[in-house]
Amino acid sequence: MKSEARVTLIVLTIIVCAFLLTLSACSLRPISRSKHIEYQPSDKSVTAQHLNIFAPKKHKKASDVLLFVHGGNWNSGKKSQYNIIGNHWAKKGIVYVVIDYPLGSGVDYSDMARATANSVKWVKENISRYGGDPERIFLSGHSAGGHLAALVSIDNQYFEDLKIANPLAGTILIDAAGLDMFGYLTEEKLEKGHTYLNTFTTDPKIWKAATPLYHLHKKMPPMLIYRGGKTYPSISKSNEKFIKALKEYAPATPYRIQEGKKHIPMITQFFNPWNRRYSEIIDFMKSVKTGN
Known about the structure:
With 292 residues, this protein is an alpha/beta fold. It has twelve helices and eight strands. An eight-stranded mixed beta sheet has the order 1-2-4-3-5-6-7-8, with helices on both faces. It is globular and about 55 Å long.
């Protein structure tokens, strides 16, 4: 066979295989998309905040819910960047919610954390209308979003301020930043006006209040934690410190380091619907026992 024909045959084979994979039962599952739903009205300090919901159309029982908080250095990012991931999760039988949260001048980490808590409350009260189980809400985040997810999951004050008990079944952190924000800001000695100081102020007491590491307790939701093997040194250091501290409170917490993965690929890997992280996270969610 001539080399040109051989190459053509290989290419056609790849295309056919990709097509057959696309026609898998998972890919054909019908889903619904509900976008730009307001979960937090505007007030004097922040504008109204919205979320998107991706859900399987057909289900025998209420589905587990995965609420995702995007990253972006606490100053950028938007929920629409994760729509394709939402499609993938819904096709795997999970109700996926992705939120926007307050960003920009005049906004600090506490505004973002309160919005995250408000989004969880909204999901708790409304997700059953979209096929989700309000007793099985898992909060996840990447990078800065991982910090917010961890903080809200662990520091019950955010839910107490909303006059509800912590409703989370579990937490999934994906290369989370800021798990030891206090340590990072203390060591870096950033100049006034740095974006992180705009977000976390210049007050070390506030840095500590904003640090998930200092809110650990034995009754916090179970966690699954991922870290990139080639992530930023500050993220690696804070994750390692966080895991070490967790041994006192939740020593069985699964901690998975993806060797060779940098920070951004830790989330873009989910653009691939066959990425193994999907099945790992679903297995973790299934392992969590709730009142149901």
